Amino acid sequence: MIDMTVRYDEVLGPLREAYDARAALRDGLTKEPWKLAERQTFRERLAPGARLLEIGAGTGQDSAFFQDEGFAVVAADLSAVMVEHCRAKGIEAHVMDFLHLNFPVGSFDAVFAMNCLLHVPNHDLPAVLAAIRVVLRPGGLFFVGVYGGNESAEGPIDEDEHVPPRFFSWRTDEQLLGFATAWFQVVDFHPVDVGRGHRFQSLTLRRPGPQ
Fold first, then answer.
1. pTM to 2 decimal places
2. In Å, what is the CA distance from 103 to each residue of 12, 76, 85, 157?
3. What is the pLDDT of residues 103-122, one digit of tens each?
4. Radius of gyration of the chain from Cα atoms?
5. Which one, 30, 129, 146, 189, has least CB within 10 Å?
């Protein structure tokens, strides 16, 4: 990975192409136990019947889980092929990127973002967090899960099997929390050692305001 300066609108096209091409393959993947545990922990924080938006939803495996748990779920992804997989699972799904979440203000009780905000360059992350805050009601919960590390770096990674290679932004704990606390209150933060030299940052946030 190399350090670079890039903007969100520059990475959208290559990301969409990469995920369109591998949607079917990704739909058949089995989720690691630690991901299931993180998802379950967030589920237990939600009130019955909560309206939940999953951004970067991929093929809708997590959205389907939340829907099966009785929540009102809407999925969004920049890949039209991914969105079709979501809809095939009976999920309301829309083709949207993080800066264009075309939903009414405060229309969701929760937002779930698993391993997707790591594709947003640091330059545009504040604007993305602001856009998410807009669609989340005051007091609503926001789960952010990304891979991070001891150093900050942006760019493609050599071992990426997607074509074209995807953009990643890796952030330190302090850096991620700094971005988050400009818009949200921290409910929980903890790292997860997921093996193979990877470190996952689990962050649950709350939009300030009366519930």
1. 0.96
2. 20, 11, 21, 33
3. 999 999 999 999 999 999 99
4. 16
5. 30
